[in-house]
Amino acid sequence: MNGRASGRTATLRYFGTIGAPTWGDDVKFLLTMHMNPEVWNGLSEETRQEVMNGQGAFITKIRESGEMISTQALTGPEDAAVVRVRGGVPVVTDGPFIESKEFLAGFYLVECESRERALEVAAMIPDAAVEGLGIEVRPVLFFADAETPLDFA
Fold this sequence. Notes:
3 helices, disordered N terminus
C-alpha cells in the first residue's frame, strides 16, 4: 500500500450495470464525513474540539500504515454553486444543490487491503463516535490523479 497509483494506468471502460467490486490488489475507498449542523451545534465546545483534534491523530495513524492517499474538508453548502450547461451555455445556480439536514463536509481517500479493513479505518475517524454522525465507506470505481496515465480504450 503506497497510496499512489505509480506504475499503474487508470483505465475507464463502460461498466453497464455495476456489481460488487472484485477484491484483488489493494482497493481505494472514499470515506465520506457528513455534517448535521443540529447535531454538531448540540455538542459541547470541548467535544467539538476533541473531534477536530482527533483528525490529526487519525491522519498520523493511517499515514504510518501506508493507507492514506488524501483528505479534504469542505465549506458548507451555502458556499456551493451548481453548473449546468444548457444549449451550450453554462447556467450557474448559487447555494446548495438540495435542501438537506446533512451535507458532505469532507472525505478521506484511503487504500486498504479489504472492505473489512476500510470499515476498521472508518471507525477510527473521530466523527464516527458522535451520535447522529457517521462515515460512509464506498469503494472507488475509477481513480486518476495529475500523474496517472489514462487509457480510455
